Amino acid sequence: MLILLFSLTLLVALAFGMRYPTIRGVMLTAWAVRMLLLLIHHQIFVLLPGRGDARTFFMEAQNFSRLGFDGALAEFTVTHSTGFSALMGAMLSLFGNSILVMELINISMGLAIVALAYRLALNCGADRGQAKRAALIMALVPSTAQYSIVALREMILVLPFMLGLVALTAQRSHATATGMLLFTFWCSVAAMFHGGMIVGIGGLGAGVFVFQMFASRLPGQPRPNMIWNLVLLALFLALVSMAGGLVGEVGLNKVSEVGSGNLVNQLNTASLQAARGGSAYLQDFAVEGYGDVAASVPLRLLYFFFSPLPWDIRSAGHVLGFLDVLLYAFCFRELWRTYKANALSPKVLMVLGVVMTIALAYAFGSSNAGTAIRHRAKFSYALVAIAYAARTARYQQAVLSGQNPGLWIRRPQQPQRDSRSTA
After folding, report:
1. Are 381 and 351 contacting, i.e. CB atoms less than 8 angstroms apart?
2. How far is CA 29 from the centre of its chain?
3. Which residues contact 9 (CB under 8 A, 6 or more apart)?
4. Are 351 and 408 in contact (CB under 8 A)?
5. N or C: which end of the chain has fewer CB within 10 A?
6. For 220-256, what is the HEC assignment?
7. Which residues of the chain have pLDDT under 50?
8. So what's the pLDDT on residue 117?
């Protein structure tokens, strides 16, 4: 049965390679990298994220697997992290009582996410060459790829999240209720495994606002209809309420139990609880009012995306996290340069609004470099995709204005769309 799962991972890589011929080699590379990491994980040394929670999830899944497939599924819940263990327990009952079952399922999802990063980059305006580079980075970067290997929840969160972003940015869907409904659905699926992802639906509101603000200024575009905007707002609020009721408060204690009690106290409590261990940061930093909350946002985001800072590196895990920092620095640098060139597209801004809203929630619930490294990996695929879309937009603007775009990017390939896909 394990051979069947190994074959499934290769089949996923080949299937996406056939669907998107441009990244056929990238998908095979992603598969090879993950197989190599899996070999290292079991034969040489345990990958860093696999030393704690991954083992706990596997032991819980083993217990659920004794109930059989139906019995394990009956234990699935959206009110606790054991829901993931119950689902994996059902898989163990089918494919065998080995941690490889969970790891190979995660690899299959991770390979799909690499392809979705390519699709998202295309949707946001990247040419095929730049979208391929985005996928190649996510195929190769070991600091992120290792989360595809170990038995953690990361991939089962990121896959629906990326599916939602792809649906939201598909051709014309960014301006319709259909794209928003699909994104809300997929974000709710992700929230079943970690409640913090429900904040993404709030991020949709921020992303739509940014999109409408910029889209209304584009030449030849009609200004948004006020009545239609009010209808979308009402629908958005209704969906937030329903999705919130669906997932309850799963994991929201890590970012604050919004809606009950004093928000400032909850933020302080969540942050201080997370600030433990040798990689803790901002241990003594507490907010006293909503003004402090707003003022602390840049600091929290800075630490969330860029910790550990060079002077805080004390372990191999910190070194790996610092390599991760370089990836985020590249993404934000590209977005900033494109913003200065006034070339950011509304779709890129929409995705950025969604990502940064969720990141802010996790930033207040992460006061530990190790925790921050793990949580921010959820957003790496989307950030890399829109960073390369921004590069394409900056090049195209430079060419249209008669400027020399430099040698940092090849001429955009035509046509921009890969295959015949619109999603």
Report:
1. no
2. 21
3. 31, 34, 35, 104, 107, 108, 111
4. no
5. N
6. CCCCCCHHHHHHHHHHHHHHHHHHHHHHCCCCHHHCC
7. 216, 218-219, 240-261, 407-408, 410-412, 414-417, 419-423
8. 97
Please check whether residue 373 is in contact with residue 237, taking contact to mean a CB–CB distance below 8 angstroms: no
Which contacts of 48-54 are long-range, i.e. CB under 8 A and separated by 24 or more positions?
A: 48/146, 48/316, 48/317, 48/320, 49/146, 49/147, 49/150, 49/152, 49/374, 50/149, 50/150, 50/151, 50/152, 53/152, 54/150, 54/151, 54/152
Q: What are the structure tokens assigned to 171, written together?
A: 């051709």
Side chain identity, residue 249: E
Task: Please identify which residue in the block is written with the tokens 């620095």.
Answer: 329
Give the CA radius of gyration of the chain.
21
Tokens at residue 374, please? Answer: 């793990």
- Give the pTM: 0.82
Question: How deeply is 277 buried, as exposed, middle or buried, from its count of CB atoms within 10 A (0-12, 13-18, 19+)?
Answer: exposed
From residue 169, alpha-carbon distances to 188, 263, 350, 382 in Å are 18, 33, 9, 12
Which pLDDT belongs to residue 377? 87
Residue-level length of the chain: 423
What value does the mean pLDDT of the chain take?
78
Return the bridge partners of 280, or none: 368
Write the secondary structure of the chain as one string of H (helix), E (strand) and C (coil): CHHHHHHHHHHHHHHHHHHCHHHHHHHHHHHHHHHHHHHHHHHCCCCHHHHCHHHHHHHHHHHHHCCHHHHHHHCCCCCCCHHHHHHHHHHHHHHCCCHHHHHHHHHHHHHHHHHHHHHHHHHCCCCHHHHHHHHHHHHHCHHHHHHHCCCCCHHHHHHHHHHHHHHHHCCCHHHCHHHHHHHHHHHHHHHCCCHHHHHHHHHHHHHHHHHHHHHCCCCCCCCCCHHHHHHHHHHHHHHHHHHHHHHCCCCHHHCCCCCCCCHHHHHHHHHHHHCCCCCECCCCCCCCCHHHHHHHHHHHHHHHHHCCCHHHCCCHHHHHHHHHHHHHHHHHHHHHHHHHCCCCCHHHHHHHHHHHHHHHHHHHCCCEHHHHHHHHHHHHHHHHHHHHHHHHHHHHHHHHCCCCCCCCCCCCCCCCCCCCCCC
Nearest alpha-carbon partner for 164 in 139, 190, 189, 182:
182
What does the longest C-alpha to C-alpha distance in the chain come to? 68
Give the model's pLDDT for residue 28: 96
Under 8 Å between Cβ of 24 and 17: yes
